[in-house]
Amino acid sequence: MLVAQTCFGLFPVSKHWLFPAGAGGFAPFAVGAWRMVFAALSLSVAAWFLHGDRWRIRRADLPRFVACALLGVSVNMTLYLEGLKRSTAVNAGLVMCLIPVFTFAIAALARQETFQPSRAIGIGVALVGASLLFWAERPDLIRAHGFGNLLMALNALAYASYLVVVRPLTRSYPPLVVIAWVFVLSLPFVPLLVLREQGGNPAGLAAGTRAFFAPDGASLAAWGALLFVLVFPTSIAYLANSFALSRVRASTTAVYIYIQPIITGVVAWLIADEELTPVMFVSAALVFAGIWLVARPGASKAAAARA
Fold first, then answer.
1. Which of 111, 149, 269, 276 reaches 20 to 30 Å from 60, CA-CA?
2. How many domains does the chain have?
3. Helix-strand-coil percent breakdown of the chain, rounded to 5?
């Protein structure tokens, strides 16, 4: 979970090279399509090589896999990238803090988990800690980037739903097989992204596809940022998250998302010389206290005994 959230937390910082002001970058839909294709190919090869016959999935599980592909990849990625382009890296990390709240609610409604006051308090403590980075220092950002934040909030709802829907699959299949199939089944969405970028006109689709994936004006920095996104916040992060889901509850996995704004803030400080403030240290303390309340062994055993 720490590996996955570190990779995801580094993702927002890459927006400065992926979507630079003016020319020299990629369209958000193009980055999403690159992630789908790259992850489908790389993870499928790895799953087939490591698991052989276990690569096959049962027909009865196909609808759940398709739902995971829509919620966890197609809808999730496109909403996030469109929102990220219209907002800021710090806002992106903060809006992602909605995912544990959504996950806890959805998992309880689906009766995958039982309600525990200590876990609810832990989620609240972590949410307060993460929100300090926004409300205490930059209260103007949500007004300036409202539409982008809204898109990312919808992305958070989609991803929280994915965490709940995918968990039964991680108990029946190896995590690598699950995430590989999730990306493979997202591939039919790629042509729709190309058409969307062309304004829905299918004429000249071949030439449009080339320009979509490899725009002439993309800088070397943009290509480097894309390579980073494909390897770390895509393949490695999704694989690590799927591996974690096979061993812990969905809401426990989700609460680690509160680490993202801290990672984003620290990396922004290292790369962009942004100041590390006392609020960030208070935020970090509250985030990790909340994670402890949700994930501590005593709480997990109590929930298991009641389940």
1. 111
2. 1
3. 80, 0, 20
